[in-house]
Amino acid sequence: MLKFFLVLLLVTTAVPFLIVNPILSKRNNKNIDVSKENLFKHVKFLTDLNPPRNAFNIESLNKAAEYIYNHFTVYCENTYYQIYRVGETEHKNVICEFGSGEGLIVIGAHYDVCCEQPGADDNASGVAGLLEIARLISEEKPNLKNRIQLVAYTLEEPPFFSTSQMGSYVHAERLYRNGEKVKYMISLEMIGYFSDRKGSQKFPFPIFKLFYPDRGNFIGIVGRPKDWYITRKIKEKMIEASSIDVRSINIPNIIPGVDFSDHRNYWIFGYNAVMITDTAFYRNPNYHEKTDTIETLDFERMSEVVKGVYWAVVST
After folding, report:
1. What is the pTM of this model?
2. Per residue in 29-47, pLDDT tens?
3. Domain limits of the chain?
């Protein structure tokens, strides 16, 4: 009987530890000059595109890709399109690369939207963060230990989600075929919506309420159990550099939402990958709605997320 209770105690303490991945890290709130004005400008351009930048409005998609490309070229000499075809239509990932190390870190965000909506949080926020990280690497000139690829993907949203025609699938498959040593991948998927209202944070199962706040005022890092170590390192560095509350979860991808972004395709090819997110439909009532507008975003907190991600990428 004693043995049974010892095993039960071990399970009930170890499992939450592995899922929640707690960090006792000192906040330094590093002096990293993230521009809220830049973030706003990028989100505004993308959300003002009309018709919306979905898979059926190729002209708007191309305008978004060109905007991203033009900004990448300001910050990075090694900028290029990864072009592929779906039927008769040409689609573009936009890539810029820094550094020359043997290891590779990928940070990605999709620039397309679902249906006829502006997609401020989903996912102009992630693309804005990607562009601001490019500027920071260019201007701060950190001593990079690894090569860093920043990738803006097309065709993440339906009807192409979970198919090999997703831009991130095309990119991950190319890395795999080229034998690239990917240290990890980060997907920036909705990083701009926050709420201090009690009960604003929802969960797939009630038990999660025991481990996470019920206010949607934190940023999440989501990965599988096998991504536990890299989740921990990214979380530690984000906490170290920024003032945002950073929470993480490492659970199997059978839980709804765990694989709902571009990181899923890197898992397919055996790479460690995580999603950094404001938890999408578990918090944001504007998810995939016409109300997903720039006015709903919190650029102060969003800038802290970008600061944390930047520091994590250049210091791990």
Report:
1. 0.95
2. 678 999 999 999 999 999 9
3. 27-315
CATH fold for the domain made of 27-315: Aminopeptidase (3.40.630)
pLDDT at 5: 37
In this prediction, residue 18 carries a pLDDT of: 67
In tens, the pLDDT along 270-287 reads 999 999 999 999 999 999
Q: What is the pLDDT of residue 7?
A: 34
Determine how many CB atoms are found less than 10 A away from the CB of residue 222.
27
Q: Residue 88 class from Cβ within 10 Å (0-12 exposed, 13-18 middle, 19+ buried)?
A: exposed
Edge-to-edge strand ranges of the sheet holding 79-86: 79-86, 89-98, 147-153, 104-110, 182-189, 273-277, 218-223, 245-250
Q: What sign has the CA pseudo-torsion 161, 162, 164, 170?
A: positive
Task: Mark the ranges of the chain whose per-residue pLDDT is less than 50.
Answer: 2-13
pLDDT at 9: 33
Q: What is the 3-state secondary structure (H, E, C) of the chain?
A: CHHHHHHHHHHHHHHHHHHHCCCCCCCCCCCCCCCHHHHHHHHHHHHHCCCCCCCCCHHHHHHHHHHHHHHHHHHCCCEEEEEEEECCEEEEEEEEEECCCCCEEEEEEECCCCCCCCCHHHHHHHHHHHHHHHHHHHHHCCCCCCEEEEEEECCCCCCCCCCCCCHHHHHHHHHHHCCCCEEEEEEEECCCCCCCCCCCCCCCCHHHHHCCCCCCCEEEEEECHHHHHHHHHHHHHHHHHCCCEEEEEECCCCCCCCCCCCHHHHHHCCCCEEEEECCHHHCCCCCCCCCCCHHHCCHHHHHHHHHHHHHHHHHC
Please give the Cα distance from 142 to 104 (Å, whole number).
Answer: 16
Q: Which residues contact 75 (CB under 8 A, 6 or more apart)?
A: 96, 134, 135, 137, 138, 139
